[in-house]
Amino acid sequence: WSLPNAERYALQYADGRQTYITESNRRDIKNGSILRLTTSPDQEAERLYIGIQSKNVDVKTDSLKKLADLSQDITFAQEFISRNGLKQIYSIVEEGNDAGEMLAYTLKAFTELMEHDFVSWENLSTVFIKKIVSYVNMNAVDASIQQLSLSILENMVPTSRLLFELVKKEVTLDRLLTHLQVTNAQLQLKAMALLIALLLSATDIERRDMMDYLREKNIRQFIHKNIIHSSEPLGDEMAHYLYVLQSVSLNLCEHRMKTSMDPYSQEQRDLLQSLRQTAFESESEVPAGTFSTERRRSLCAKEFRKLGFMNNSNPAEDLRRAPPGLLALDNMVYFSRNTPNAYSRFILENSSREDKHECPFARSSIQLTLILCEILHIGEPCSETAQAFYPMFFGQDHFFEELFCICIQLVNKTWKEMRATQEDFDKVMQVVREQITRTLSLKPTSLELFKTRVNTMNYSEILKLRQMERLHQEETLAVPVLELREKLKPELLELIRQQRLLHLCEGTLFRKISSRRRQDKLWYCRLSPNHKVLHYGDVEEGVQSPPIESLPEKIPVADMKMLLVGKECPHTKEKSSGKQNKDVLELAFSIVHDVEEYCLNFIAPTRYEFCLWTDGLNVLLGKEMTSERTQTDLDVLLSMELKLRLLDLENISIPDEPPPIPKPPSSLNFCYDFSHAEQ
C-alpha cells in the first residue's frame, strides 16, 4: 500500500491468538484467515514499556492488560525483553504497591514472557520469589492472583535445586492442602500442579517424607470425596495430576520390591516365622523341650512346605528373587495379620488336598506380587501425558496390600475352577493376570466393587471372552490362512454369481414412476431359465409371480450393450433435485440394448433388490459385480468356509513360512526298474 515508514507497521491475525506475521511464519497463513494492519512489534513493545511505567493508573492498567495479551507472541516478547521490560515487571511486583486487576495483568504478562525461554528462572531475585510466595500464603488475596502465583511457582520448581528448596520451605504442604479444599476448580488445579511439581523434583527420601505427611493429613480421602466425586467433571489436566500422584505413591514400594531377602536379617526371619506360626498356631505351641532340634527343624520344613515354599528347608531362598523381593513377604504378612481367617482357610484348605492339586500360597504370592507390580507399573517413571489413574486407589488406605489380599484369594478360587495341578501353575497365573487387567479396565470406583467384579469374571467367563476375541481376529490371520482366503475367493464369487442369476430368473415386481410421480402402474421382469432372454410386461396389483409366458416383451441378452445406474440413467436426468428424487437415484438403473440405443428403465423397490439386479445384469454382460452386497456376502461366505476348513487346526499355531522342502536325494538308483521285470 506504499505506506510511509512501512517498518512501523505489521500484519497480525485478527482472530484467536493474535500472532504477528513474520518471514518465518508467513507460509503458515491459511486461505480465509483474516489479517489486520497494526503497529509493528517493536513499536508496540516500546509504547507498552513506557506505558507500564506511567504514573497514570488507567494508562498503566491498560498497558499491562495489552502486555498480558501480546506477550503470548514470540516476536513481541523478544522485542519487549530486549528493552529490559522484565526488569519493570519485577519492580512492579517487588514494590508491592499495586494490587487487584493491575497485579493480575502483571503476573499474567510475566508468565507468558517466561514461557518463551528467553530468560532463565534462576535469574529471579529472592525478593521477587518471596513476594509471589506471599500471594499464595495470604488469605485475603484475589483468587486469580493466587492462581497465577501458584502457576509461576510450579514452573519455577523443576528448573533448579535452589528454587525447589526455597519454594518447599516457603510454601508448606498445609498451605497447599488449604488451597486444594477450595471450591474454585482452577485454584484447586493450580495447587495440585504445584504439589506434583514439588513431589517430582524431590529426592527419594524427601518424597517419602512428603507422602507420609500427606497421608497423615488424609489427602487421599479428600481427593476421593471432593475431586473425583465432585459435581464438576474431571478435566484432563487434573486426571494427569491424579495419575502422577498415584504413580508416585505406588513407587514408594519400589525399594522393597528391588531388595532381596537377607537370610541373616533377624527382622526378616521373624516375619517369615510369623507366617508359619499364624497358620499352624496350635501345632507350634508344643513346648521347646518336647522335640529334639532335628525333629523341630523337620517339623518347620514340613510346615513351610504346606505354606507353599519351594525351598522348604530354607524358605528365604524363595524370596531372593528381586523383583518382587521383600514386597512379596510384606504382602504375605499383611494378609496373614489383617485377614487371619482367610489366610488360615487358604493354608488349611490346600493342606488337605492331594499333593498335586494343592495351590502353593507362598509361590503364588511371590508371582502375584510381581504381576501386580507390572500391571500398576511400579518402579517405572511417570508418563508426561498419561491420565489413567484408578479411582479406587484414592478410596482405600494401604491400596496395594488390600488389592493383594483380594487377588490372592482369587488365585485360590481360579485354581479350584481350573482343577489345576502344580504343572498348571503358570497357566493359572496367566488367567489371574487376565482377570485383574480386564477388571481394572472397567475402572471400578472402589475395592469392594473390584472384588465383586473380579470374582464374577471366573475361568469359564475368561474362556468365553478369549473365544470371542479369537473370532474377531480374522484381520490379523497368519500368512497361509490369507493365501487360503485368496484361493477360495474365485469359487465363492462364482457361487454369488449363480445366486444373482437365480434371483433374476425368479423375477421382481417394479413400479413405474411417471412424471406426475404417481406410483400406480406395476410391471414384472424376469430372466429366462437358459439365461438368454429378459422377459417383462405390465401386471395387475396383487400378482406375485406371473408365469414367463404372460410377459409379452423381451430383450435378448446378446443385444444388451451396457448397464447404467443412478444419475447416468435417462429416466433420472430430467428430474428435480428433491429428497424423494435422491432416494430414487439410489435405486435407479437402466439397460441399454439394441442398435437404436433403446433403454429399459428400472426403479428397484429396495436397495437389496438394486444390488442383486445390478450384480446379475453385470454377470450377464460379463463384467465384475460391483455392489456393496457382493462384498458383504463374500466376507460372510469366506468367514464360514475358513472356519470349516480350519476346524482341525484349533489350538495349533500356524507358521508364517511353509516348512522347507527337502533337497532331492543325490542318487535315484533306489527306484524300481520295471524294464528288467518285464524281460
UniProtKB/TrEMBL annotation:
InterPro entries: ARM-like (IPR011989), ARM-type_fold (IPR016024), ELMO_ARM (IPR024574), ELMO_dom (IPR006816), ELMO_domain-containing (IPR050868), PH-like_dom_sf (IPR011993), PH_domain (IPR001849). GO terms for biological process: actin filament organization; apoptotic process; cell motility; phagocytosis. Residues 267-440 form the ELMO domain. GO terms for molecular function: SH3 domain binding. Transmembrane segments: none annotated. Gene3D superfamilies: 6.10.250.810, Leucine-rich Repeat Variant, Pleckstrin-homology domain (PH domain)/Phosphotyrosine-binding domain (PTB). CDD domains: PH_ELMO1_CED-12. Pfam families: ELMO_ARM (PF11841), ELMO_CED12 (PF04727), PH_12 (PF16457). Keywords: Apoptosis, Phagocytosis, SH3-binding. Involved in cytoskeletal rearrangements required for phagocytosis of apoptotic cells and cell motility. Acts in association with DOCK1 and CRK. Was initially proposed to be required in complex with DOCK1 to activate Rac Rho small GTPases. May enhance the guanine nucleotide exchange factor (GEF) activity of DOCK1. This is ELMO3 protein. The gene is Elmo3.
